Amino acid sequence: MFVFVCAGCDAELTTPLSEVCLPVHAHQTYGNGTQLAVLMESGTFAVDPDPWGPPWRRWDELEPGEAEARGIHAPVHALSYGPSGATVIAPGDTRGTRLIPGRSGGFCCGLDGRDGLNLACEACGLPVATRIDDCSLWQAVWLAPDAVCRRLVDGDDPAPFSWEQLAQQGQRTPPFEPIATWGGRLGSSHYWSWSPVWEAAAGRALAHVLVASEGRPVKVPGGLTADVFQRALDALLPAGPPVRHAVLAGPGLPAAEAGADILLVPVHPRTGRTWTPEGPAAAAYAVPLPLGVWLWLAFPRPLVPIPASGVLPEGVLRDDPLPPRPMSLFRADRGTFRHTMARLPAARSPWLRAILEGVTQDMCAGLF
């Protein structure tokens, strides 16, 4: 367990926290005027290895080779020249901070961080963090790596779960959820939608699957996995043989199918490590998925209405009304897809560069 302290005066700025891996949706922008939840679970923190925040430099301002030296292999709108190693926590886990007057820039409903650090240490006044709570952004506080220090504190921090424990006890992320909107003339409301977390997870995974495809068509398992990936793969990749096969693989599943070229595998929520198979399957391309998303795909639990009298037991689905579902087909998150693809060296290949350019120009006919 750690607390973060001010680098200027050593005052404590957080409650004791335990480290987890950075959520795939950490920098996602979702919808328009939507209310997103808190990014981090209370009592946890994650570190972003990439530079984050201002100052920014536009792509056309970069010198030849400058982007690749920073791990960017395809054009992006702008490149962050802020410090790397920013730490993200839940806003409720901050202590001893105050908002900085004049740095409260936001688009419409809250703070979006456009003015840089907007939280200062209450004890000495040093700017230490950026609070984000605007609409369409995940609520979070980003601690500046050069303004805070991490200090080990007493307290038990249990060992990470094994893969077998995660397969049995891991928290599943539902693919659908109600999305709340800010109140307007008609008041606040919500609509039933695909989960933003799923859309971000699919955006990252889709970039990896395209790289693994080597420009050949890819077939994924049927059901929900096909709903999430197959439409985009069919539109972005050429048709016809030979076909590459992607399968779900991980703890609690039978050994990967013989001849599978691509494995959809879970990422450990604590360590950030990707599950790795043994034997011949280890040569397949491993595509990372957040554990909660992977668990739902690998071990689906359909809620089938069954007769019941009295109080409905937990887990029983009413057949009236029917369970809500999204009104649209699944779309991967475009921003996460581009962010991931730009950081994969394979993005330098002409055919992948052409896909990225198409996503920028016409959003691939509603795929994103």
Compile the SSE list and pairings:
Elements (H helix, E strand, L loop, with lengths): L1 E5 L11 E2 L14 E2 L8 E8 L4 E3 L7 H4 L8 E3 L3 E6 L7 E3 L19 E3 L5 E6 L7 E4 L4 E5 L10 H7 L6 E9 L2 E8 L1 H18 L4 E2 L4 H13 L7 E5 L13 E6 L17 E6 H8 L35 H9 L7 H13 L6
Helix pairs in contact: 3-4, 3-6
In a few lines, what is going on in this structure?
With 368 residues, this protein is an alpha+beta fold. It contains seven helices and 18 strands.
Description:
20% of the residues lie in helices and 23% in strands. The chain has 368 residues and is of the alpha+beta class. It has a 7-stranded mixed β-sheet with strand order 2-4-7-11-10-9-8, with no helix packed on it. It has a 4-stranded parallel β-sheet with strand order 15-16-17-18. Strands 3-13-14 form a 3-stranded antiparallel β-sheet. Strand 13 and strand 14 (187-194) form a beta hairpin.
Number of helices: 7
Termini separation comes to 39 Å
Low-pLDDT windows of residues: none
Order of helices and strands: EEEEEHEEEEEEEHEEHEHEEEHHH
- Which percent range describes the beta-strand content? 15-25%
Kindly report the spatial arrangement of strands forming the biggest sheet: 2-4-7-11-10-9-8
Q: Could you give a short account of the major beta sheet? A: 7 strands, mixed
> Could you say which overall geometry the principal axes of the C-alpha atoms support?
globular
Helix fraction?
10-25%
Average pLDDT level:
88
DSSP summary, beta strand count: 18
Which structural class do the helices and strands define? Answer: alpha+beta
